[in-house]
Design goal:
The structure is a single chain. The protein is of the alpha/beta class. Helix content is 45%, strand content 23%. The protein has one domain: Nucleotidyltransferase, domain 5, CATH 3.30.420.10. Strands 1-6-5-2-3-4 form a six-stranded mixed sheet, with helices on both faces. Helix 2 runs parallel beside helix 3 and helix 5 crosses helix 6. The longest helix has 20 residues. The radius of gyration is 15 Å and the shape is globular.
Length: 176
Amino acid sequence: MSAFFSPKLRASLYNEHMKVLAIDPGFGRCGVAMIEGAGAQAVLHYSSCIETPSKSVFSERLLFVANELLRLIDTYSPDTIAIEEIYFTNNAKTAIHVAEIRGMLIYLAASHDIPLVEHNPLAIKIAITGYGRATKEQVTKMVEKLVVLPKKKMLDDEYDAIAVGLTALASAGYHK
């Protein structure tokens, strides 16, 4: 896990009760979740997938995702932003665009003085299922057991964002 801390927020980053804006970065679909709580006692306030039109140029897609994340920051005032670390893929163009989205997320966190934490996929799987080689289906089943989910159809990216947020809450106690 890596993190950005502003000096004034370092001491208060991990408290007994925190609000996490969790993000599974992407430009076609970007999973987002707003989770509040401490450790295993989490409440999901919001989750969705920010979806951008595939025919739009990348700069428009980046702006659309950024504007939606700004709206969520303004609406929920998160204590921290948690994102999934990038892992390499076979498609270099996609990896570069996801990296650019992540750069925008890091900028938004820093410019709003919100601490940013990153968790890699292995750490997320371990935090959610206890097993680093868990399948997407196993992670989804555990997410369904850990928080009350809305009664709606949810995409994988949305479940992934919730898992990122739960990981941030679970790991918070280790960083006091």
